[in-house]
C-alpha cells in the first residue's frame, strides 16, 4: 500500500519551545493531508486539513496560531506546535489523501509522533 | 452534530469465542474504514468498505457495511490473543462535503484472554 512517512516519531521538549513535525507521502502526490491528535485511550480528533498551496482549514476549537500547518509541496506537510506547553503533550498522527490508486481518495496514515512537553 | 459511535467501548473475551463490534454513524456516507491500533502505535488499515452491502473478510475478522441503517459491523470469529488491540471505525464524509474528511468512532478496546 501507499506509504506516508512521519518524523520524528518521538520528541521531548521544554515548555516554551516550538516543535516541527513532518509528514511526507512517499509514493504519491497528496494535494490534501490531515493532522490528527490523540489523547491517551481516546479516539483520533481531526485538527486540520492541509491543502497544498493554500491555507489549512482548522476544525472548531483548534488554535491556528498554536498549531501552524504548512503544505508547501505535493509530498510534504508540516505541523509546528508553537510555544509548546505540557497540555500540548499528545500523540499526533498525519495522513495523506491519495487522489488516485486502487482506492481513490482514501487516507494513508503516518506512524505518529509522540510529543512530550516538560 | 456528526457522531460515530462504537459499542462496546471495552470488550474482554475468551479465546475461541465470537463477538461483534458495532459502528453507528449519524450522517450519509457510503465509505467506511476499520483500523486496528496497538498501544503506542499508529493505525493499521484492516478494511475498506466502499458501498452498501460491502462485506470483507481477512482471517478471523469480517466487516460489513449497511449504509441505509448507517451501521457497520466488525465480527471476530474464534478470537485469539493476538487480536487484542483497539479497533476504530472511520466514516468518510468526503464525497458529500468535498472535504474528504474522516470522522473516527469512539474506539473499542478488545482484550482476548488466554
Detailed description of the structure:
- The complex is a heterodimer of chains A (118) and B (114).
- Chain A is an all-beta fold and 118 residues long.
- Helix content of chain A is 0%, strand content 52%.
- Chain A contains no helices and eleven strands.
- Chain A has strands spanning 4-7, 10-13, 19-25, 32-38, 44-51, 57-58, 67-73, 76-81, 90-97, 107-109, 113-117.
- In chain A, strands 2, 4, 5, 6, 9, 10 and 11 form a seven-stranded mixed sheet that branches. Chain A has a four-stranded antiparallel sheet with strand order 1-3-8-7, with no helix packed on it.
- The model of chain A has no long low-confidence stretch (mean pLDDT 94).
- Chain B has one helix at 94-97; strands at 4-7, 10-14, 19-25, 32-37, 43-49, 55-58, 61-66, 71-76, 85-92, 102-104, 108-113.
- In chain B, the strands form two sheets. In chain B, strands 2, 4, 5, 9, 10 and 11 form a six-stranded mixed sheet that branches. In chain B, strands 1-3-8-7-6 form a five-stranded antiparallel sheet, with no helix packed on it.
- The longest helix of chain B has 4 residues, at 94-97.
Summary, kept brief:
Chain A has no helices and 11 strands. With 118 residues, chain A is an all-beta fold.
Tell me the helix content of chain B.
Answer: under 10%
End-to-end span of chain B in angstroms? 40 Å
Which protein chains make the most extensive interface, counting residues with beta carbons within 8 Å of the other chain's beta carbons? A-B, 24 and 24 residues
Bulk shape of chain A = globular
Task: Outline the biggest β-sheet of chain B.
Answer: 6 strands, mixed
Succession of helices and strands of chain B: EEEEEEEEEHEE
Helicity level of chain A: under 10%
Tell me the distance between the termini of chain A.
Answer: 37 Å
| Quantity of strands of chain B, as a count | 11
Q: Unreliable runs of chain A, pLDDT <50, ≥5 residues?
A: none
Which overall shape of chain B is indicated by the principal axes computed on the Cα atoms?
Answer: globular
- The structural class of chain B is mainly beta
Which H/E pattern describes the elements of chain A?
EEEEEEEEEEE
The Cα radius of gyration of chain B reads: 14 Å
Query: Average pLDDT across residues of chain B?
Result: 93
Radius of gyration of chain A: 14 Å
Which structural category fits the helices and strands of chain A? Answer: mainly beta
Proportion of β residues of chain B? over 45%
DSSP strand content of chain A: over 45%
Amino acid at each position: 500500500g501507499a506509504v506516508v512517512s512521519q518524523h520524528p516519531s518521538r520528541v521531548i521538549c521544554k515548555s516554551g519551545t516550538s516543535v516541527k513535525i513532518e509528514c511526507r507521502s512517499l509514493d504519491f502526490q497528496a494535494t490534501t493531508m490531515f493532522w490528527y491528535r490523540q489523547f491517551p485511550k481516546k479516539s483520533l480528533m481531526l485538527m486540520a486539513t492541509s491543502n497544498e498551496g493554500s491555507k489549512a482549514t482548522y476544525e472548531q476549537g483548534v488554535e491556528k496560531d498554536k498549531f501552524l500547518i504548512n503544505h508547501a509541496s505535493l509530498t510534504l506537510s508540516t505541523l509546528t506546535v508553537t510555544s509548546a506547553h505540557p497540555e500540548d503533550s499528545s500523540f499526533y498522527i498525519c495522513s495523506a489523501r491519495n487522489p488516485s490508486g486502487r482506492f481513490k481518495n482514501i487516507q494513508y496514515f503516518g506512524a505518529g509522533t509522540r510529543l512530550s512537553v516538560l | 452534530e456528526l457522531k460515530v459511535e462504537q459499542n462496546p467501548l471495552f470488550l474482554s473475551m475468551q479465546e475461541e469465542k465470537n463477538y461483534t463490534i458495532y459502528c453507528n454513524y449519524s450522517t450519509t456516507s457510503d465509505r467506511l474504514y476499520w483500523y486496528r491500533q496497538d498501544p503506542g502505535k499508529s493505525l493499521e488499515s484492516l478494511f475498506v468498505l466502499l458501498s452498501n452491502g460491502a462485506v470483507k473478510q481477512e482471517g478471523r475478522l469480517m466487516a460489513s457495511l449497511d449504509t441505509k441503517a448507517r451501521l457497520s459491523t466488525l465480527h471476530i470469529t474464534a478470537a485469539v490473543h493476538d487480536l487484542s488491540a483497539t479497533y476504530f471505525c472511520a466514516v468518510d464524509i468526503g464525497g458529500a462535503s468535498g472535504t474528504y474528511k474522516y470522522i473516527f468512532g469512539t474506539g473499542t478496546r478488545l482484550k482476548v484472554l488466554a
